[in-house]
Amino acid sequence: MRLSQIKEVVKETAKGFEWELFFLRRKDLKISTENGNFEKITTAEDYAVAVRLLKDKKIGFSYTTQLDLSAIKKLVDHLKEITQRLKPDEGNVFKTSRDRISVESPFDKNGVMLTIDEKIDKITSFERNLIKLHPYVAGTRETTFSEVIYEVEFANSFGVEFSYSGTFYSIVTSVLAQSPRGDKTVTWGYKESPYLLDLKLEELAKELTQKAVDTLDPQPMESKTTPVLFHRSAFVQLLEEFSPLFSGESALKKKTPLLGREGSQVAVEGFTLIDDGTLKGGVSTHPYDDEGVSQRRTVLIENGIYKGFYHSLSTAVKMGQEPTGNGFRESISSPPQAAISNLYLKPGEADFEELVNTEEKVLVVYELMGLHTADSVSGDFSLGAVGVVYKNGKKVSAFRGVTVAGNFLDLIKDISHIGNDLTFYSNVGSPSVLVKNITVGGK
């Protein structure tokens, strides 16, 4: 069924209301392998439409996967009743004019054209090659490769209409390593990209192998305050977890210490944090956000100076700001809210080897655990950490079961060096980051 037919039904049924349609079609392919052997394949194709109605500053929301016209009419009739019973809010607005397109949605024609057998071979070869990289690698746990092809169509009663299609690839895997002493460790990793080749499977295999082998045979560690080098994959975890600090939603709820601090220094000079919905090859790069606002590049922190929040239409209206193209749906079953697009820390100039040689002794954190316990309102965290101790640029021991504690906003003021190894793992990217002093809890 075409969106034009659905639009006519909604337009007719929703008389007296402003309306908005968001149509999503997805084709999913999942391939599972283990130790270089094919396990299973699953495919699915889904269609869904989300509807919002607006009247008297009240917005009602619903969605359905039943796309016959009678089901759509029934949904809208029910939604009209619900909407009128809701409380008005000044932030309840729709996009009233169409912005110019600033970027195209990434679509991997070459990846889509590969046969299923070629994709299976690509993933099984990745695992087999990974196992050969080091004698301590004992195998892999299940590897899951995903390909998503999607189409989006949008229309509202103000004449804002657009459509785009895109692709999304991801791989999630884990590596089992065992030392001659019998110690075992499992290290997991993932990559996501709109383009299959940009998963960079060889680089992922090397990174996972290094982490797995380096963290074997850990040694006890005393509690201390010490320089810590967050590997790029670990600092990505921090950036993602504390991204709500920069959200207009958090500002409105007074749940961020950054409220009212625009123009002040909140991080070390050289720390520049950017949310860029126009980033070439970005996982969340699209011509528009899910409300019809053109995506754009928003600098959140520039050389340590806080510049402002990212906004949906609603948060922008309430705070007297311009929307930044950050109104996204968590899924088709959720209405849009302020969220990051492609968030990343601008890289510095030092390579990883330089960073581990900067201090006489450095703790390199490869992975953080327990992020669900972090306080994204205050910025406080106390997290499990896995990594390696370097002394005079050489690895001297591994550690597991220690805690790294602090406050994110304090941490970004205490950075001494930012690496040049910017890497995206999904829609969040970071280089490795060296922090002067941080509390590490051991035995």
UniProtKB/TrEMBL annotation:
Gene3D superfamilies: PmbA/TldD superfamily. Residues 115-216 form the Metalloprotease TldD/E central domain. It comes from the Bacteria. SUPFAM superfamilies: Putative modulator of DNA gyrase, PmbA/TldD. GO terms for molecular function: metallopeptidase activity. Pfam families: PmbA_TldD_1st, PmbA_TldD_2nd, PmbA_TldD_3rd. GO terms for cellular component: cytosol. InterPro entries: Metalloprtase-TldD/E_C (IPR045569), Metalloprtase-TldD/E_cen_dom (IPR045570), Metalloprtase-TldD/E_N (IPR002510), PmbA (IPR047657), TldD/PmbA_N (IPR035068), TldD/PmbA_sf (IPR036059). GO terms for biological process: proteolysis. Residues 224-442 form the Metalloprotease TldD/E C-terminal domain. Residues 19-81 form the Metalloprotease TldD/E N-terminal domain. Belongs to the peptidase U62 family. This is TldD/PmbA family protein. It comes from Aquifex aeolicus. The lineage of its organism: Bacteria, Pseudomonadati, Aquificota, Aquificia, Aquificales.
